[in-house]
């Protein structure tokens, strides 16, 4: 089973061709421009230029207008294969192109600077007055680029070939679609994403902060943020326990030698924090759990096939030395709490354990209203750092495919996305804006258990190496929290809201009754605050709505006399006065329904 590759789609060709049209317009406005590369990317395209002056928003408007004129000319995109000497003559005034041609001539790199196994052909594409060094593909003619379905978005700095030692170029980003409605939807999506940005909402809702005093990539959580962490982790813990997983704890520090045995050191050391050395022993902050869980398996004594499967789960804070420039709010941090599970089983149990993991993942994703997701079978690819053991890789890949097919899971294969020790099934969910997030994963590992020395005594009374299934449901608490903040726009379901209700006394004389009701609600497990400020009632309600608290309970004379609360909802609905007991019943029903 496979998914059509982006490079094979008409949309890819449209975006690639739009990049060439943009380059033509830029060169017309700046004849002395040096142009480099212009590939399609997710949702659009870009092109890098060495220009005599910085571009302005007015420049982008002119370039975009000229692009529409070029597109309306119905110019053919014509490919021509040429020699290196011909290419050098054509691009004799384009220094960056000459550098690319030299790479192509040597056979080491393509026109984008990507390494190649074989010496490539050198080709150019021509349309109208513009010629570019390019391997394609492109649309047949500029008429296939809808003039109302593309837009130039921004300008950014970019080093030539991503190397800070090279010249800084100006990168123009654009987006292109097949239909104007698709462009309109994408632009709406971008605006909506800005409103939902978890970094913005996280601060507004008082959930978490980043402090320069603590350091980049190290979030700190408020009482409300920690309540959400607790709710998220406790929910998954309860689900896992119900499915037969046992929770363990393996600490934060590990001797470096263990990672050398597992293979993580050779493949992962750049992502580890520097070692801490004590009496010539090097320790590392733990970046992953699997070697520790396998060590725990060994320390628990000799195992029999009758004990398997043995399922370990842990909410462990891991530490990864991410580059500062790659940090991004909660979705890319240096301290991350992973809902990690490792199942030790026999080869014959792989399918049943995959099915069990699948049930856990489906239940949890459905609870968070991620019902639209696809599965990517991530395999080895060319040039990656993978443990060399073809036999075990083949067994793992075949076992994972068989488990996916047995569970009637539609999937597509992607080379180069596997873990260094084995293939994996990655669950990629769409949020309410249609954006894709990899959330869950199940990995089959025939390699690490042998390297760590894990064994069990089989029915034949001989020693065997167990297979380990690595599984994460939400991935990490921090990243998943960032995703669901944006998914729900901060208006979390009642069961997940850090504060479920706020009591709003109309006057000071109603505060005592409000505090009494709050105490009763807390005894029933409802998370509630009392807004006893001297502000007017409407101001308190507006503030509660801004904080996206599900229920506002207004209390006046009538409510205090009749043991009632006047209910208002964050969406503006006003159900009115009801008995406290009826409100408690409503909360319980909303929690059960996942509202």
What does it look like?
Strands 11-15-16-23-20-19-17-18 form an 8-stranded mixed β-sheet, with helices on both faces. The longest helix is centred in the N-terminal third of the chain and has 20 residues, at 10-29. The model has no long low-confidence stretch (mean pLDDT 93). The protein folds into 3 domains: 6-192, Threonyl-trna Synthetase, Chain A, domain 2 (Threonyl-tRNA Synthetase, Chain A, domain 2); 221-246 and 287-487, BirA Bifunctional Protein, domain 2 (2-Layer Sandwich), CATH 3.30.930.10; 501-593, Rossmann fold (3-Layer(aba) Sandwich), CATH 3.40.50.800. It is built from 18 helices and 28 strands. Helix 1 crosses helix 2 and helix 11 packs across helix 12 (390-406). It is an alpha+beta fold.
Which key phrases capture this entry?
single chain; 595 residues; alpha+beta; Threonyl-tRNA Synthetase, Chain A, domain 2; BirA Bifunctional Protein, domain 2; Rossmann fold; 3 domains; 8-stranded mixed sheet; 5-stranded antiparallel sheet; 25% strand; globular
Quick recap:
This protein has 595 residues and is α+β, with helices and mostly antiparallel strands. Helices cover 36% and strands 25% of the residues. It has three domains: 6-192, 2-Layer Sandwich (Threonyl-tRNA Synthetase, Chain A, domain 2), CATH 3.30.980.10; 221-246 and 287-487, Bira Bifunctional Protein, Domain 2 (BirA Bifunctional Protein, domain 2, 2-Layer Sandwich); 501-593, Rossmann fold (3-Layer(aba) Sandwich).
